[in-house]
Amino acid sequence: MLDQLLSTLQGQVAPQLVQQLGLNEDQAKGSVAAAGDSVKQVLGGGDGVGLDDVMNLFSNAPNSAGANGILDNIGKVFNQKLTGEVGLNGQQAGGVMALVLPLLTQLLSDKIGGNAGNLQGLLGELGKGGDLAGMAKGLLGGLFK
Buried (b) or exposed (e) across 18-54, using 16+ Cβ within 10 A? Predict the structure, then answer.
């Protein structure tokens, strides 16, 4: 699911990154890959990520404080990847984030739409397994250590 969404995102945003921000094609492609890697890292890590917040983030409802926290975390990781791995300067990274993050979040929201089954599919791809109950148990178990 995420790979398909990233392919769609690549087609939508890469020309804008080249035309509006002056990136070359490798930088544009690397920026989209970094966005996907950032989502995978934050959601796949599971540390402090609540299922209700992830469902809220990828729905059409206004974001909760927890959902905004996840999005902020994705943004921080994304910025580090853009400046470290892709080699963009801070201004370029800021421009990329302003274009890419809202589109990626919207694509994920359109695909997941607050549906637990769709979220389960995404989390399964991220190495969290396809079992929401198991994930919830794991996340809750971490609270009682």
Answer: eeebebeeebbebbbebbbbbbbbbbbebeebbbebb
Residues 34-56: tens digit of each pLDDT: 999 999 888 877 666 778 888 88
Range of the domain at 30: 2-143
The torsion region of residue 62 among left (phi > 0), alpha (psi -120 to 50) and beta comes to: beta
Angle at 103 between CA 23 and CA 113, to 5 degrees: 160
Q: What is the pLDDT of residues 74-109, one digit of tens each?
A: 999 999 999 999 999 999 999 999 999 999 999 888
How many domains does the chain divide into?
1
What is the value of pTM for the model shown? Answer: 0.81
